[in-house]
Design goal:
Layout (H helix, E strand, L loop, with lengths): L3 E4 L2 E3 L5 E7 L9 E6 L6 E6 L5 E3 L7 E6 L4 E6 L8 E9 L8 E4 L3 E5 L2
Parallel strand pairs: 2-11
Antiparallel strand pairs: 1-3, 3-8, 4-5, 4-9, 5-6, 7-8, 9-10, 9-11
Amino acid sequence: QVRLVESGGGLVQPGGSLRLSCAVSRRIFTVYPVGWYRQAPGKQREMVATITDNGITNYVDPVKGRFTISRDNAKNTIDLQMNSLKPEETAIYYCNVKLVHAINAPPTDYWGQGTQVTVSS
């Protein structure tokens, strides 16, 4: 089936940067945006950034101007560049792809295993 593998997480100082990468086992061909989500301890998972096949991006307000999402359809990868990281952004970050397999059916969500990002001094 569809497999997503995230990498690039780790421990960084506040104000530091990380680049997360998501490798998808098949070509990313979907009408739905793909993106990155995160889940902090004790909180619900939230959308961080999404990008369409046409390159249109959306970000959760707190990360605008600091995070950049990109995709490479030839390599089947989705990246998230995170700059000026804050301690409250410590979370497990997940890559997400939505695919439709039948007409009039909702899309199927595919998730990676997650990569831990810890922002601490």
